[in-house]
Amino acid sequence: MAPIALDQFQQCVVGFPPERSLVVSACAGSGKSTTLALRTKALVGRWAVPADRILVLTFSTRSRADLTSKISEAIVPPAPTPTVATYHAHALSILRASGMRASIIARRDAYKLMKELLTSLGLLNDGDKSARGTVSAPRGCCARGVWCMCDPNPDVAGR
Ligand SMILES: Nc1ncnc2c1ncn2[C@@H]1O[C@H](COP(=O)(O)OP(=O)(O)OP(=O)(O)O)[C@@H](O)[C@H]1O
Ligand SMILES: [Mg+2]
């Protein structure tokens, strides 16, 4: 495939000095991931930043797959490619590396777990209509000795 001719804004991002911070804010489909892939290539190729010093984080597994594919198109082996991960997967790897038993669960499982926990503590009677709605959306919970993070993506459960 012919290389994409970047516009002036994309070129500015790709060529931005590596030691300076940069925020790119642009609308959907405007070329952010393409730019990020080529920026990563420039960091590794032009500025010799070691690939293991670059971490590409994104929200969804779909976006991670897209970025992984764009970055591997941009950086040709044997050049090393940096880690591309979702925030949740990366946070999980940090927790596991620190020795913590942890897993990511889907939102519906987090609700179920919280309900079981509250019921076992006598704080929620199963089937108690008045208690409905008391299990609010947990962003994280600690139950059965396992710290759980709730991912908005249902497809990450069990990872
Ligand atoms: N300068 C450019 N000229 C022509 N096409 C481009 C250019 N930059 C990106 N594209 C193309 O535009 C499309 C969208 O690009 P990209 O996926 O990088 O956008 P995005 O901002 O990351 O999108 P999303 O918001 O969906 O994540 C792709 O097909 C990409 O190849
Ligand atoms: Mg994108």
Strand order of the largest sheet: 3-5-4
- Computed over alpha carbons, the radius of gyration is 21 Å
Number of beta-strand segments:
5
CATH architecture of the largest domain: 3-Layer(aba) Sandwich
> So, the CATH homologous superfamily of the largest domain?
P-loop containing nucleotide triphosphate hydrolases
Give the total of domains: 2
Structural class comes to alpha/beta
Which fold does the CATH topology of the largest domain refer to? Answer: Rossmann fold
CATH classification, class level of the largest domain: Alpha Beta
Overall shape: elongated
First-last Cα distance: 34 Å
Number of helices: 5
Ligands bound to this protein structure: adenosine-5'-triphosphate, magnesium ion
What is the N-to-C order of secondary-structure elements (H for helix, E for strand)? HHEHEHEHEE
> What average pLDDT do the residues reach?
80
Classify the helix fraction into a percent range. Answer: 25-40%
| Residue share in β-strands | 5-15%
The residue ranges in which pLDDT falls below 50 over 5 or more consecutive positions are 129-134, 141-146, 154-159
Q: Give the biggest beta sheet.
A: 3 strands, mixed
Question: What can you see in these coordinates?
Answer:
With 159 residues, this protein is α/β, with parallel strands linked by helices. The chain folds into two domains: 78 residues, P-loop containing nucleotide triphosphate hydrolases (Rossmann fold), CATH 3.40.50.300; 56 residues, no CATH class. Helices cover 38% and strands 14% of the residues. The strands form two sheets. It has a three-stranded mixed beta sheet, with helices on both faces. The chain is elongated and about 60 Å long. Magnesium ion binds next to α2 and α3.
